[in-house]
Amino acid sequence: xxxxxxxxxxxxxxxxxxxxxxxxxxxxxxxxxxxxxxxxxxxxxxxxxxxxxxxxxxxxxxxxxxxxxxxxxxxxxxxxxxxxxxxxxxxxxxxxxxxxxxxxxxxxxxxxxxxxxxxxxxxxxxxxxxxxxxxxxxxxxxxxxxxxxxxxxxxxxxxxxxxxxxxxxxxxxxxxxxxxxxxxxxxxxxxxxxxxxxxxxxxxxxxxxxxxxxxxxxxxxxxxxxxxxxxxxxxxxxxxxxxxxxxxxxxxxxxxxxxxxxxxxxxxxxxxxxxxxxxxxxxxxxxxxxxxxxxxxxxxxxxxxxxxxxxxxxxxxxxxxxxxxxxxxxxxxxxxxxxxxxxxxxxxxxxxxxxxxxx
Amino acid sequence: xxxxxxxxxxxxxxxxxxxxxxxxxxxxxxxxxxxxxxxxxxxxxxxxxxxxxxxxxxxxxxxxxxxxxxxxxxxxxxxxxxxxxxxxxxxxxxxxxxxxxxxxxxxxxxxxxxxxxxxxxxxxxxxxxxxxxxxxxxxxxxxxxxxxxxxxxxxxxxxxxxxxxxxxxxxxxxxxxxxxxxxxxxxxxxxxxxxxxxxxxxxxxxxxxxxxxxxxxxxxxxxxxxxxxxxxxxxxxxxxxxxxxxxxxxxxxxxxxxxxxxxxxxxxxxxxxxxxxxxxxxxxxxxxxxxxxxxxxxxxxxxxxxxxxxxxxxxxxxxxxxxxxxxxxxxxxxxxxxxxxxxxxxxxxxxxxxxxxxx
Lengths: 359, 359
What we know:
Two copies of one chain form a homodimer.
Chain A: H1 2-22, E1 25-29, E2 34-36, H2 59-64, E3 72-77, E4 82-91, H3 99-103, E5 105-111, E6 114-121, E7 127-133, E8 141-146, E9 151-161, E10 166-168, E11 174-181, H4 183-186, H5 197-205, E12 207-213, H6 222-230, E13 235-239, H7 246-263, E14 269-272, H8 284-307, E15 311-314, H9 335-354
Parallel strand pairs in A: 11-12, 11-13, 13-14, 14-15
Antiparallel strand pairs in A: 1-9, 2-3, 3-8, 3-10, 4-7, 4-9, 5-6, 5-8
């Protein structure tokens, strides 16, 4: 009897809390707010690539390019609370990252001209009513809400106080930079969706970075080159040497560049060397395989730079430090590793972009 | 037909890989290896507290104190591969951390006198055969294998090459330091189990830190004071102000100290201030509640220091930086936040411990 009473109290307590966080709220469809981060328009709002137009992806790639990594809603509100009601098509749930990164939201609010962390939460339910933040003052606030990085979303409604206002905000970021890459770029093992290295660089620099990270599938394929060739961009950044083998890099690099160059003849193409994977510390086979990739990447980009002066190579000694404390699973950096990655490439990127008056 | 063929190839491919990683291995029961990190012996090997002896915990606390946070196996082997076969009693699966931290393993190997990261992996299965690392050279290696931080374990077997040796290693760490604390100490939102801040300090300093982190339940209770009073320790560290309210801190602090002091009259008691929770940036109620706790903690420890010269207060301005980039869920630090926490307290701890010739 005592146990049942305790249990009932807990349930009632939780219901009260949920009620206080979500009662007397009104919901507006997020389709009426500004959605940033997509390299091209898509019929399904929260997809990154139109898989009906680009039909030569594998089934796995079709899922990856429709996941919401890097997408964000921009709005202004004076609500004291913000909730998100999502219908998920599919939700990521891998062991090497948080649910918050995979199917959660990551909210920033502008303060003193900077994007200050406000809240990040997640709940593993396809019909997902998520109270994100409460107890704010009711001044007008500019909000940047990053969507989940590893889930496919059918619809989103934003909940605010019944009497509060909400309106769409213009994209707060400048220029159009597209980044194509591996799970590192997609944000695998980042702690929340806004803490992938491209989005840290975005908020730090104010430069607009659209993310085509496709976990495990950034292999210099023509299928992706065609999507990028069709996109409108001032700059392309590539994390293109993390997924392919040395042989694939050798075989595919030139034609990958050629396809993009056909429609972007002089746009800067910035290739990043891949990172040191911590699994290499003792796994001799992984060490050899990874070093071969890095050697081939360096060789092939340096060759390309000889005939194309708008190709660049970012090749720091180690993006994630030399103290070997930054890995989550031997492959993917932790939040510490991604932070170091962002801080390492920021000055290198800015130096290149300055030549093109992108600043 | 094509799809079935592809699927079969994938399955066969995966089976081949698993076979190569686990075939011709022999398994030894980990009970024959040195298990470190427990403050007292327990009948159930992988529990941290004997819940048959200490009977005034809540059901939730009974689970928390039997989770394997901070425990590690010490052994030496010349195997080229290491696998772990675990029978889990229960496995954590919260949205604010990785599976690798909750139900995975975190392996370090001694190199140049330091513990170098080797591998960390996880699989969400109760009967859990986990290939951890392959392709190593066959020199003798000293291994430190941290157990999962949020799971209760019934048994563990370590798999090595059929022809390889394995033997138990003495505890590589010095002195006996017990830390009692909240989810922060338990390691919530750390990326892997060895990256909680106490274990980072352990590997950095060589000091032996036994972890009684009990997520959400470090509230200066007599139930925990009695466990600590019975334990053998050179030093106690407390993350004791993260979970209780200001009122609970005021009401419970003196009697908590008194119970421990009854059997440890002059042992150094080092109390840490709690950290700034990033949810405070915009949630006014959380901001007030947390500041009240911190104010009360500072007041009450400073008062205690006047009559007990072996009580200390660690109170840095902010353990996790002032750039607001270190949170996973508004409460718990990310890997970046825990790294900064460890690096902030290390010199402060070492200065105190030096007075007691603990170094």
